[in-house]
Structure formats: structure tokens, C-alpha cells
């Protein structure tokens, strides 16, 4: 993929990652557990209710990585984790009772925090509990794992619990970089975990990396990328470190002077894309790469890729029910976010309530814009005619301003509009977020607070 770093620089602004539209900062308290309950009951009553995707949030980690951008609870208190798992089960039980027994699960993902901070027994126990509450089809079942804490008992237990995919948080292999962010792990240990994942038979192994961390250089990061390519994971996600110490106080432990300059970051990004695509990985979009035989790459070819809070997925048709603190459920017409505070979460469950604190019901306009933004980010194209038929609008009239905004991208050779199809060209794929942003009514109404979002590159 040929990338012009001057063009990247021009478009490097803050913007949403569009795991939802509208993005989570627009969720409000006017939508709570009662509204969520009503929506579940309404969807259940449909003649052909959607398939299910389950998300389970484990917020705990034994120590904090200084770059972390997640809502994490640092604890070594095992009893606290035990108690949280009991409450998770209670929440799962309550929601499963509401859902019709004909609702089949096609996808489950455990994220965090560090889900593999649960003991092997807890992982088996929680997974088998969930399987007693829902009807699983031939589901895609994945877990996020920290290679540092994986004991010899973990990987076999995770496989036994029915997980067929694993995502390893590697971030970098350089010891100086890792020590500087409080995440020491040896290269040998990480590579050995990747090998063990293959030995126990995961269908898909994903590796997460981060560029833009302190003390990274082109040389050190080239070594990381080449070594990971040699380990041959099925998928890779290479994220850009978002340094926002005014929002995440622990990031103040990272000295500004140790961060790569914007120019170095751009050079790293172009190196990453070049090496991965030269090694045969397909660029899926927004930080994600996959081997050509992987189903994400196949879905990209058939324009059937979708995006949700867990990232890219092939299950466009499924509604996500999310469990645990801060977890966000994503139904066709609503988003519902659980309370973030652990005590408040337990209290809500003790009171027999669903722990939803915030949410959003999509309006007609949100549906149209969500469709376009997701099409652009997932499949790199949107058909005006298909959108007109689906939503009963006159595309050119409805999106007059957005189309004006797109002109800049067209003039820069990043987007083409031909035969009623808006298509992101190869050269524009790394800034597909910026292109999608032209259709975001909230940003364009001046409602977007740049400080809430990470930079697009
Ligand atoms: S392990 Fe992951 S979630 Fe936990 S502190 Fe580190 S980056 Fe954050």
C-alpha cells in the first residue's frame, strides 16, 4: 500500500473510532434500565429476533500499564474478583431470563482489563455458566489475554471452556520500551505463548501492538514487527498510542521527551503497513490486519464486514448484549451502558435492577448516518442508490453538506465518486476515519469535543 506521509499529516486530527454511532460520549441518563428492559421485550416479540453476540467485561488487572486507556481496576484481591464473578452471573441470569430461548449466540467475547487474570477454574466455571443460560450455535468465542500472566494451566482451560480465538496484548517486544510503561515481559516469553496458543489449537490468534510508545525508534519497532511477522499470527491490530495525560493521570508517568515525534510516528506507521502488507497480510481497516484466508479478510472482499464495540466482526446481524461494569450493549435501535463503578453495579443487581446507567435510542437520521459511516469504515464504499432505497431519502439532497466536505478528499485523490458509489481509494484507507467523519452530524454541528477523541493517525 503506497502512503503519502504529507497527506497523512494533513488529516491527522482527533476523531471518534466509531465503534458506535453516535459515539459513546453522546449517551445520556435519559436512557436507563427501564428503557433497556422495554427494548429487550419489544425485540423479543419480533417474528424473527436477531442473533446474539455476548460481551463479558472483566475490569481487573494486577498492575497498571502507563499507556493504558481503559477503565481498569488494579487489584490483587482474589476475593474481590470472586465476588465480581458472582455478580456477573446474576446479571447474565437476569438478562437471559428476558431473552427468548430461540435467540442463538453466534459470537462471544471476553474483554477487559485482563480476562485471563481470572484463574483457570474461574474461566471454566463462568464460561460453562454462560452456556447454561444461552443457546450457543457454532459460535466464534474469543478472549483477550495478557501473555505475562498466562500460567501453564490457563491456555488448556481456555480451550476447554470453548474459546476458539485468542487475542494477545503484546504491544512491543523491546525491553526498554516495556519497562518504561510498567509492562515488562521478555520476547522469549511472548513468542513462547504464541507457540503454545497454536499447540492448544486456537483457530485464530490475534496480536495487539502499539506504536508511539516511549523510547520506541524505527529500528526497535522494525525488529518488533519483523519478529511478530515471523511468529505468524492470523490477525494483528497495531494501535496508535493516545497520550492524553490530562484525561488519564497515570500517563503522566510517561516522560514527554521519550515519546517519538509526530514525524517518527508517521514513519513507523508507514513501515508497519508496508511490512505487514509485504508479508501477505490484508489491511482490514483502522489498525487491523489479517491473513488473506482469515474470515475478516474474506468478509472485506464480499463487503460484509461490520464494526461493533469489540472491533471488526463478520456478524452484522447480531445484537450485542454486554455484561459487567461499564459494558455497552448494542441493539439495533439502542445502546445501553452499564454503571462504571463496581459498588454501584453490585447495588443495582442486589436491588433486582438491570445495571444500565446511560444509553441512547437512535433516531431515523442516526440510522442513516450509522449505516454510511460503518459502510465506509468496514467496506470502504457506500452506494447512494442502496442507501436511498433502504432509508427512503434523496442522497445528494440529504447529504449536501457531507458531499461538500468530501470534495477535499476527492481532490487529494483519496476518495472517488463514480456511478453513484462513494469509494475510498487505496491511498485513503488509512484515513477512513476522517472520511467517515464528514457524515457525522454531531461533529459537524460543532458538538464534537476533540479532547474526548484520539488522533486519527
Ligand atoms: S493489561 Fe491492558 S487493561 Fe490492564 S492496565 Fe495493562 S493495558 Fe490496561
Walk me through the topology:
Layout lengths: L4 H6 L22 H12 L7 E7 L1 E2 L11 E2 L3 H21 L5 E9 L7 H14 L1 E11 L8 H7 L4 E7 L3 H6 L6 H13 L4 E8 L6 H14 L3 E6 L21 H17 L3 E4 L2 E3 L4 H7 L4 E3 L2 E3 L5 E5 L4 E3 L3 E5 L3 H9 L5 E6 L2 H16 L1 E3 H8 L3 H4 L1 H12 L3 E4 L2 E4 L7 H6 L3 H4 L13
Helix pairs in contact: 3-4, 3-11, 4-5, 8-9
> In the CATH scheme, what's the topology name of the largest domain?
pyruvate-formate lyase- activating enzyme
- The CATH class label of the largest domain is Alpha Beta
Principal-axes geometry comes out as globular
* Physical arrangement of strands within the biggest beta sheet: 9-10-8-7-6-5-4-1-13
- Summed over residues and divided by their number, the pLDDT gives a mean of 92
Supply the number of helical segments.
17
Q: Specify the CATH homologous superfamily of the largest domain.
A: tm_1862 like domain
Query: How far do the termini sit from each other?
Result: 16 Å
DSSP strand tally: 19
Residue fraction in strands:
15-25%
Q: Which structural class matches the secondary elements?
A: alpha/beta
> Ranges with pLDDT <50 over ≥5 residues?
none
| Proportion of helical residues | 25-40%
Give the biggest beta sheet.
9 strands, mixed
Radius of gyration from CA coordinates: 22 Å
How many domains? The number is: 2
Q: Which CATH architecture of the largest domain would you pick?
A: Alpha-Beta Horseshoe
Amino acid at each position: 500500500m503506497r502512503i503519502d506521509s504529507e497527506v497523512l499529516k494533513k488529516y491527522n486530527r482527533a476523531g471518534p473510532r466509531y465503534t458506535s454511532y453516535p459515539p459513546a460520549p453522546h449517551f445520556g441518563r435519559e436512557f436507563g434500565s427501564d428503557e433497556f428492559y422495554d427494548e429487550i421485550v419489544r425485540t423479543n416479540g419480533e417474528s424473527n429476533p436477531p442473533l446474539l453476540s455476548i460481551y463479558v467485561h472483566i475490569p481487573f488487572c494486577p498492575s497498571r500499564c502507563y499507556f493504558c486507556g481503559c477503565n481498569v481496576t488494579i487489584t490483587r484481591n482474589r476475593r474481590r474478583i470472586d465476588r465480581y464473578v458472582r455478580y456477573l452471573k446474576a446479571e447474565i441470569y437476569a438478562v437471559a431470563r428476558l431473552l427468548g430461548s430461540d435467540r442463538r449466540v453466534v459470537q462471544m467475547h471476553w474483554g477487559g482489563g485482563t480476562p485471563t487474570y481470572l484463574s483457570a477454574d474461574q474461566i471454566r466455571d463462568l464460561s460453562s455458566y454462560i452456556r447454561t443460560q444461552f443457546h450457543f450455535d457454532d459460535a466464534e468465542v474469543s478472549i483477550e489475554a495478557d501473555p505475562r500472566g498466562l500460567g501453564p494451566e490457563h491456555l488448556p482451560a481456555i480451550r476447554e471452556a470453548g474459546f476458539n480465538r485468542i487475542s494477545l496484548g503484546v504491544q512491543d517486544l523491546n525491553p526498554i520500551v516495556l519497562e518504561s510503561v510498567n509492562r515488562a515481559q521478555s520476547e522469549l516469553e511472548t513468542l513462547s505463548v504464541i507457540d503454545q496458543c497454536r499447540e492448544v489449537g486456537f483457530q485464530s490468534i490475534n496480536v495487539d501492538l502499539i506504536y508511539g510508545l516511549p523510547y520506541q525508534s524505527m529500528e526497535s519497532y522494525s525488529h518488533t514487527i519483523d519478529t511478530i511477522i515471523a511468529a505468524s499470527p492470523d490477525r494483528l491490530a497495531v494501535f496508535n498510542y493516545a497520550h492524553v495525560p490530562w484525561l488519564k493521570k497515570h500517563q503522566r508517568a510517561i516522560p514527554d521527551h521519550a515519546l517519538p515525534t509526530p514525524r517518527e510516528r508517521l514513519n513507523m506507521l508507514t513501515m508497519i503497513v508496508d511490512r505487514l502488507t509485504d508479508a501477505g497480510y490484508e489491511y482490514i481497516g483502522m489498525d487491523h490486519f489479517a491473513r488473506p484466508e482469515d474470515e475478516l479478510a474474506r468478509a472485506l472482499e464480499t463487503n460484509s464486514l461490520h464494526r461493533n464495540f469489540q472491533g471488526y466482526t463478520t456478524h452484522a446481524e447480531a445484537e450485542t448484549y454486554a455484561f459487567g461494569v461499564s459494558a455497552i450493549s448494542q441493539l439495533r435501535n439502542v445502546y445501553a451502558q452499564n454503571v462504571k463503578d463496581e459498588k454501584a453495579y453490585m447495588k443495582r443487581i442486589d436491588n433486582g435492577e438491570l445495571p444500565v446507567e446511560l444509553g441512547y435510542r437512535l433516531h431515523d437520521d442516526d440510522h442513516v448516518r450509522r449505516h454510511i459511516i460503518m459502510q465506509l469504515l468496514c467496506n470502504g464504499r457506500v452506494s447512494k442508490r442502496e442507501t436511498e432505497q433502504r432509508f427512503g431519502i434523496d442522497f445528494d439532497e440529504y447529504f449536501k453538506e457531507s458531499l461538500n466536505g468530501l470534495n477535499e478528499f476527492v481532490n487529494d485523490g483519496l476518495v472517488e465518486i463514480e456511478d453513484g458509489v462513494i469509494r475510498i481509494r487505496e491511498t485513503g484507507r488509512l484515513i477512513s476515519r476522517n472520511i467517515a467523519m464528514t457524515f457525522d452530524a454531531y461533529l459537524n454541528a460543532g458538538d464534537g469535543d476533540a479532547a474526548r477523541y484520539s488522533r486519527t493517525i
